[in-house]
Design goal:
Elements: H1 29-33, E1 53-61, E2 64-72, E3 82-88, H2 98-107, E4 112-116, H3 134-149, E5 154-164, H4 166-177, E6 181-187, H5 192-198, H6 208-225, E7 230-231, H7 238-243, H8 247-259, E8 269-270, H9 274-277, E9 292-298, H10 304-313, E10 318-325, H11 332-335, H12 337-354
Parallel strand pairs: 3-4, 3-5, 5-6, 6-9, 9-10
Antiparallel strand pairs: 1-2, 2-4, 7-8
Helix pairs in contact: 3-4
Length: 355
């Protein structure tokens, strides 16, 4: 299969996304070994009384079944009240990866947390598979708030939001209208629409109209012939990873296809989704955010420019703060223990102050 990178071009393919590539199977051992298929270091392997526990749950968004994990703090007691955090996962990611890691770490600090697979993605329902439309991702965040608001022990006056990578961009949009979220945080925020339109680091400005035409043609093919075309990266060799020029994608391929691979995670998305993505910007109307805002990024992240741009535009956010993790790159904030600890410590301080 031809490799496609978001930096260079959009390619189309009719591969079946529910068929795992055989060459990737060796990297799924970590998921297979964990009873909850969690792939991050230090993940829960069993629920032990008196400790942080994980609770797989399902709920509906219209007719789509959403799968999620709820993490409860040590000595969780339904008769008590706890602050809660909704977490939105990165593009292509699933709840068992970095979003789950942060969900568990925040639960260790006394929060009830929820991490759900996006609709049409991961283990959640919805067809065609891997539709990646901003409106869906934003509704996923609203729906997580719906579910956790009714969870035993949750103090509905103390619900926070954390979006990671693409989930960060979608969280900025969700927070504009959803004032149930009393404190908003992003980690390594990725403005999906901006990148799909302009290219990473504005590298595709000259091909915007061409790519919009490709997306439109893909939608037409869905309607007329029932064929679903996909963009992204279906599989990648070690040699191709090494030759990938940008740190975000090179390290991203390592994370998603090697060190933290999960069968439900994929870099593919429907090409027709670009009709929505390329006309969407996470910072559009960001001035509607009047809640406290914390934006965290690695000082060496090649995506930092997106956090910088959004932070400046969030003119009405209260007590807004930009926190840089010194020496960290984008993907390193997903898993590297010293960087995760810095991020969690900052998040706990932020939520304790503002929830």
């Amino acid at each position: 299969m031809k490799k496609i990178t978001a930096i260079i071009a959009i390619a189309m393919t009719t591969i079946a996304t529910d068929t795992l590539n055989a060459q990737q199977s060796q990297y799924y051992k970590k998921a297979e070994q964990n009873p909850f298929t969690l792939v991050y270091e230090g993940a829960i392997t069993e629920n032990v009384k008196g400790k942080v526990n994980i609770h797989p749950v399902t709920y509906k968004i219209k007719d789509i079944t959403i799968v999620a994990n709820v993490y409860t703090p040590a000595n969780y007691n339904t008769s008590q009240k706890y602050p809660a955090i909704v977490l939105a996962h990165p593009n292509g990611g699933v709840k068992e990866q970095t979003a789950g890691l942060y969900g568990q770490r925040l639960a260790e600090q006394g929060y009830i947390t929820i991490v759900a697979d996006a609709s049409y993605q991961g283990g959640s329902g919805g067809t065609p598979r891997n539709v990646d439309k901003p409106a869906n991702r934003v509704e996923d965040i609203h729906a997580m708030a719906d579910y956790i608001s009714k969870y035993a022990g949750v103090d509905t006056s103390k619900i926070g939001l954390l979006g990671i990578c693409g989930g960060g961009g979608y969280s900025l949009k969700a927070a504009q209208s959803d004032k149930r979220f009393k404190a908003i945080a992003t980690l390594s925020m990725f403005n999906s629409g901006l990148v799909r339109c302009n290219g990473f680091m504005n590298s595709q400005l000259n091909t915007i109209q061409e790519r919009l035409k490709q997306a439109s043609d893909a939608r037409a093919l869905e309607v007329t012939e029932g064929k679903i075309l996909y963009s992204g990266v279906a599989s990648i060799t070690d040699e191709e990873i090494v030759k990938t020029p940008t740190d975000l994608y090179r390290k991203g391929y390592e994370y998603y296809y090697r060190t933290h691979a999960h069968p439900n995670s994929t870099f593919l998305y429907t090409t027709s989704s670009l009709m929505d993505l390329m006309t969407w910007d996470a910072t559009d109307q960001i001035e509607l955010i009047n809640q406290p805002l914390l934006m965290i990024a690695g000082s060496k992240a090649d995506t930092k420019y997106m956090t910088d741009e959004a932070f400046i535009k969030a003119t009405n956010a209260k007590n807004k703060e930009l926190f840089l993790i010194d020496g960290a790159t984008h993907i390193q904030t997903y898993w590297k223990p010293e960087y995760v600890k810095q991020a969690v410590d900052k998040l706990v301080n932020f939520y304790q102050t503002n929830l």
